[in-house]
């Protein structure tokens, strides 16, 4: 069942989620802060009026005024001064009969204190109360006034409830303003964060990343090359199935991911690749003795090396593939040369027929047939293996097309090969050596190649020599190195392949320059696998 594409893209979802979480957090926080601040504000204002009522009750002018030792006007003036300086709504001094000696409204002086919550203060108690007086509902503190050990009156200090509410509202506005600023900053931060995440994800959605990851994983495990990837700390992070198979062939069945690469593959050279940043291509290596051909490249992300990757194949498989391709190419070239030579002869015959030069035609056909019979007869008589014989005859035709005289040593011979693999190896070796000789022979007046095949017991001694200018000693020393060539890039496989094939047959390919000029490559190989010479 196909997955449904999400309605909102990742960036919008991240922004929306962060916004909702931030909004919820701000609402809950604001509610708790508002409750706490409102409560604390009321407690603070309550403490304030309690303190003012006590200060006023301790004042001598108040005490003396209540017992008639001072004019009541002084009590009024003192109470108003305290009220103004402290910022409260009223400071009322009352006698034991509940009559006001001070009040913000002078018209209410001498009237009974209103609100009905003043009874307790006449009993010598101090307390807070909320009640409705002449100015409205207020928070007020009552404190008894003592003259010696006798209570002579009381003080009531109050703040109207509307003032308390205004203070709370003012604090709430600040909380709301801070919340709005924080919410706006959070939204901007969420948008920036979402944008950064989307950029890191290369603009892709999670579903696209998941699909791409699955595709890359399938590709990684479907290739025929082993792949090992490491991070900058040289810890293995990626291993595909082919790599596990090759390690199993080498006798290693343990876990690879998460282990240092120098433990699981000591010859990887990935440390050097990471340190130098230089890729290494077509290098020989081994996995616990299993010969491999490997490529190593650094992994570069935004200009910084973050790891390295090694790809490798069993070199035996590579050799087999190269041999197949080389053999096919040689056969194709030989057939092409034979076809071209045959067409040239047909053109000569056609021309002689049209000119009615029948005697010359007879002589030409007799000569061609004779040469072919001699060449074919000599090769077939000496070379008993039909595959190798057919290959040499094809090469004779090919070199004639290039004006090169190719000859087979008069003492050459070859018994039938024990199996097709031996025939194929001989064709691979001779084909590469002859191809190299043709390219090295140059354009001199003497262009000759000689092939020698001489069996000795289970060994076959072969050589290919040319009449070219020869090779410098430094080139001869590196001639069998994979990828080394003086003819340009993507070359240097022929002699390397020939040397590898001969080594697999228990022999060794050697090249040297002849004193009379040209180069000669010689080798000995065992025709019968499993037998020692």
The amount of beta strand, in percent, is 15-25%
User: Would you report the number of β strands?
Assistant: 14
> Helix-strand pattern, N to C?
HHHEEEEHHEEHHHEEEHHHEHEEHHEE
Shape from CA axes?
Answer: rod-shaped
Task: Tell me the Rg in angstroms.
Answer: 54 Å
What topology, given as strand order, has the largest sheet? 6-5-9-8-7
Instruction: Give the count of helical stretches.
Output: 14
Oligomeric state of this protein: single chain
Structural class: alpha+beta
What's the story with the biggest beta sheet? Answer: 5 strands, antiparallel
Distance between the termini: 67 Å
What is the residue-mean pLDDT, rounded to a whole number? 78
Low-confidence stretches: none
Task: Lay out the secondary structure.
Elements: H1 10-58, H2 60-66, H3 72-86, E1 90-95, E2 127-132, E3 137-147, E4 150-160, H4 161-200, H5 206-222, E5 226-231, E6 236-239, H6 241-249, H7 261-264, H8 270-276, E7 280-287, E8 290-301, E9 304-314, H9 315-354, H10 358-382, H11 386-401, E10 405-408, H12 420-440, E11 448-456, E12 459-466, H13 473-478, H14 494-504, E13 508-513, E14 519-526
């Amino acid at each position: 069942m196909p997955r449904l594409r999400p309605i909102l893209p990742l960036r919008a979802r991240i922004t929306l989620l962060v916004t909702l979480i931030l909004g919820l957090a701000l609402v809950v926080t604001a509610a708790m802060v508002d409750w706490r601040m409102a409560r604390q504000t009321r407690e603070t204002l309550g403490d304030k009026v309690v303190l003012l009522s006590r200060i006023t009750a301790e004042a001598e002018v108040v005490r003396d005024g209540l017992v008639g030792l001072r004019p009541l006007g002084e009590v009024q003036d003192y109470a108003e001064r305290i009220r103004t300086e402290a910022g409260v709504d009223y400071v009322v001094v009352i006698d034991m009969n509940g009559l006001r000696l001070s009040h913000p409204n002078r018209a209410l002086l001498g009237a009974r204190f209103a609100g009905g919550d003043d009874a307790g203060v006449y009993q010598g108690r101090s307390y807070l109360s909320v009640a409705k007086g002449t100015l409205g509902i207020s928070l007020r503190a009552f404190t008894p006034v003592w003259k010696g050990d006798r209570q002579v009156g009381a003080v009531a200090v109050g703040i109207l409830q509307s003032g308390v509410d205004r203070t709370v509202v003012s604090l709430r506005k600040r909380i709301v303003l801070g919340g709005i600023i924080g919410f706006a900053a959070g939204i901007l931060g969420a948008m920036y964060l979402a944008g950064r995440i989307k950029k890191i994800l290369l603009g892709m959605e999670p579903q696209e990343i998941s699909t791409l990851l699955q595709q890359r994983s399938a590709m990684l495990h479907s290739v025929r090359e082993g792949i090992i990837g490491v991070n900058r700390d040289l810890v293995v992070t990626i291993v595909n199935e082919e790599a596990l198979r090759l390690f199993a062939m080498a006798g290693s069945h343990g876990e690879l991911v998460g282990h240092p690469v120098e433990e699981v593959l000591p010859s990887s050279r990935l440390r050097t690749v990471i340190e130098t940043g230089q890729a290494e291509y077509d290098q020989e290596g081994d996995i616990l003795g299993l010969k491999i051909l490997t490529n190593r490249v650094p992994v570069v992300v935004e200009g910084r090396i973050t790891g390295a990757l090694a790809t490798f194949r069993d070199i035996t498989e590579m050799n087999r593939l190269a041999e197949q391709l080389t053999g096919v190419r040689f056969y194709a070239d030989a057939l092409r040369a034979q076809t071209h030579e045959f067409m040239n002869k047909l053109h000569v015959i056609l021309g002689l027929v049209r000119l009615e030069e029948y005697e010359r035609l007879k002589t030409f056909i007799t000569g061609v047939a004779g040469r072919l019979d001699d060449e074919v007869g000599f090769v077939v008589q000496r070379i008993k293996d039909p595959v190798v014989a057919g290959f040499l005859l094809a090469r004779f035709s090919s070199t004639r097309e290039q004006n090169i005289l190719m000859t087979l040593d008069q003492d050459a011979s070859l018994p039938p090969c024990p199996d097709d693999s031996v025939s194929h190896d001989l064709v691979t070796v001779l084909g590469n050596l002859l191809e190299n000789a043709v390219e090295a022979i140059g354009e001199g007046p003497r262009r000759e190649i000689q092939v020698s095949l001489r069996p000795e017991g289970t060994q076959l001694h072969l050589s290919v020599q040319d009449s070219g200018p020869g090779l410098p000693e430094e080139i001869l020393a590196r001639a069998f190195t994979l990828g080394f060539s003086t003819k340009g890039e993507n070359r240097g496989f022929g002699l390397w392949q020939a040397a590898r094939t001969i080594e697999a047959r228990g022999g060794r390919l050697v090249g040297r320059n002849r004193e009379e000029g040209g180069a000669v490559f010689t080798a000995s190989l065992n025709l019968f696998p499993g037998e020692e010479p």
